[in-house]
What does this fold into?
Amino acid sequence: MTYRSAVVLGAGALFLSLVAAQGQTTVPNANSTPAVVAATAVVLTAEEIKEKEMRKACKIALCSTFHVKKPGQGDVSCSVLKTWRKEQLDKMMSKGKMSWPWGNARCTTELKLKREVLIKAVSGPEVVADFEKHQINCELDREKDKYTVKLDVHPKVTFKDGKAVKASLNWGKIDAPMLAKSALWSATAADNTFGVLQSTVVEDINDFIDVKCLEVKAEWQR
It folds into this structure.
């Protein structure tokens, strides 16, 4: 995988985590050994704890719409903020056998999804959900300064029998320093043409609906 493809893989993963309101801290399961518990435990900073709580409300709203299907009108609107540590981003980039070229990344988006579209997506035999355009704003740490990056996406997802089966992010405008913009522009253009992130998008959407939503089931069942 080229550097440019790896960069867009990282950018796509950032967007997916924002939209799905995921980014949950990895924790050991009940059968983990003490060594595994120690190795996987992550101590969150005060800022990360605050971000996680902010995302939880958005996650509950989305899961309630998917599973309870009420209310049937209006929007799920959330200001979503997520900070990724460099080591988390390196793990994402390892899919391309590369490391993340910058430091921590702090990304935000104003999430706005129509409940009617979400409910129809998981209720019909086959539905193409055309979501509104979203802008992702990221601040990337560098050794001595920061990069500010803005990217537009216009996601479109095909659902069949309640499962995502096809998806595209449809990257648009990019606002970034020249070096970063050059890499992102080429890579996002390739994704728009060849759909290199499609399987990742589909997998993450289905994981969110089927697995992540169960983590807050008590809240959306009320």
In short: The chain has eight helices and eight strands.
